[in-house]
Amino acid sequence: MKRYFLLLVLVIAGLSACQKVQTTTQAKNQAVIDDQKIQDYIKANNITATKDPATGVYYHITNAGTDPKPNALSTVKVTYTYGYLNGLSIGATNGVQAKVSAFIAGLQAGIPKIGTGGRILLIIPSGQAYGSGEVNGIPGNSVLVYTLDLDGVTAN
User: Fold this and answer.
1) Cβ(100)–Cβ(71) below 8 Å
2) pLDDT, tens digit, for every residue of 111-148?
3) Distances in Å between the alpha carbon of 18 and those of 13, 31, 59?
4) How much is the average pLDDT of 24-47?
5) Chain center to CA of 14
6) Residue 12 is inside which H or E element, if any?
7) Which of 80, 91, 104, 148 is the most core-located residue (most Cβ within 10 A)?
8) Torsion angle defined by CA atoms of residues 92, 96, 102 and 105, in that order, rounded to the nearest 10 degrees
9) What is the pTM of this model?
10) For residue 99, what are the contacts with CB-CB under 8 A and spacing of at least 6?
11) Domains of the chain and any CATH numbers
């Protein structure tokens, strides 16, 4: 009986490991697809953008703002609009206050690049946004475009 249980555990563990490898491969493939879409968007819209090498998020700082600049522990007040690469708007916020760490990964990467009063354009690959699953009506693997204003920073 113990042998069958051990065998069952090993089979399940093996299958789980295979699924994780497949998921990692799919994520890497999607990152390549997203990057090409972003590069095409940047070219088509004549945007000068920089790619963050750690996250794959592209950004263009319209206004650098002034100190203080936030960090991951800071509470910030932001106003932003966001949408898809095709120009379709998803929504907008006005004066949202939250810790930088509470935002999606792509915003966490971009917000600290500007200071109070700053504005940044962020083009966020799906892996740094909502990933492969649908979230709040946003389809999986969606690249998102944000224009974000940093209205205020409370350093922590």
Assistant:
1) yes
2) 999 999 999 999 999 999 999 999 999 999 999 999 99
3) 9, 20, 35
4) 95
5) 31
6) helix 2-44
7) 148
8) 40
9) 0.84
10) 72, 73, 74, 75, 76, 156
11) 2-154 (3.10.50.40)
Taking the C-alpha atoms of residue 139 and residue 58, their distance in angstroms, rounded to an integer, is 20
Query: Residues for the chain: how many in total?
Result: 156
Q: pLDDT digit string (tens) for 92-115?
A: 999 999 999 999 999 999 999 999
Examine the pLDDT at 87 and tell me if it is beyond 70.
Answer: yes
- Strands of the 75-84 sheet, one edge to the other: 50-51, 58-63, 119-124, 144-154, 75-84, 89-99
- Amino acid identity of 117? G
- Determine the Cα–Cα distance for residues 30 and 62; give it in Å rounded to an integer: 28
Q: Among 155, 131, 102, which Cα is nearest to 30's? A: 131
Cα Rg of the chain (Å, integer): 19
Task: Please report which helix (H) or strand (E) contains residue 121, including its range.
Answer: strand 119-124
Q: Is the peptide bond before 70 cis (omega within 30 degrees of 0)?
A: no
What type of residue sits at position 147?
T
